[in-house]
């Protein structure tokens, strides 16, 4: 099948199933390479200064849907594999319009079923003011529809990827780890030219 036909087919498929897309041009706000803004907020694990908590780690930050079953399944995948996330230096932050009491109950329930503590932090954001200020929610150009975003933030607190969808973006732990792994590989490839130049500098200069 010609490449153009494949691209068109993929575009139609994404429009039907609502697959999140990667935002490359920063048309709707923050862009990859920007430092993610700092904020202070109460969470299910106590007060948090985002930069202090996130620095030196990979952080996946997204909206937590108010739909209990979907949110429960998503958080359960993070709780079950919390040791994998911790070992890879990955933290998860969920911003939700649910109140803090409900989020704490949800965290306890998920931890009890998973058999280990949920390390993802849940932030209560009733009214979605924090989500809007961080760029997790934005109005689509020329319509009243809300765009939902998720961010992958690197150890340097800079945005590495942005995903955009017309509905809240949900990822399992496996999907998050795939995304982090791909970005870590990309980061290592960026540093390769410097390493190669260092090697070339050690080679003897050919004599004419």
Structure description:
By secondary structure, this protein is an alpha+beta fold. The protein is built from 7 helices and 9 strands; from the N terminus they run αβββαβααβαβαβββα. Helix 3 crosses helix 5 (100-114). Strand 5 (90-96), helix 5 (100-114) and strand 6 (121-124) form a beta-alpha-beta unit. The chain has helices at 3-17, 50-54, 68-80, 82-87, 100-114, 129-134, 173-202; strands at 21-22, 40-43, 46-49, 58-64, 90-96, 121-124, 137-139, 146-153, 159-165. The protein is globular. The strands form 2 sheets. Strands 1, 4, 5, 6, 7, 8 and 9 form a 7-stranded mixed sheet that branches. It has a two-stranded antiparallel sheet with strand order 2-3.
List keywords for this structure.
alpha+beta, two-stranded antiparallel ribbon, disordered N terminus, single chain, 208 residues, seven-stranded mixed sheet
- N-end to C-end Cα span: 53 Å
Q: Helix share of residues?
A: 40-55%
Q: Which fold does the CATH topology refer to?
A: Glutaredoxin
Percentage of residues in DSSP E strands: 15-25%
Radius of gyration of CA atoms, rounded to a whole number? 20 Å
The profile of the biggest β sheet is: 7 strands, mixed
Overall pLDDT: 77
**Element pattern in H and E:** HEEEHEHHEHEHEEEH
- What structural class should be given to the helix and strand makeup? alpha+beta
Residue ranges: pLDDT <50 for 5 or more in a row?
1-28, 191-196
**What is the 3D form?**
globular
| Strand segment count | 9
Q: How many structural domains can be distinguished in the coordinates?
A: 1
CATH class: Alpha Beta
Number of helices: 7
CATH architecture: 3-Layer(aba) Sandwich
**CATH homologous superfamily heading:** Glutaredoxin
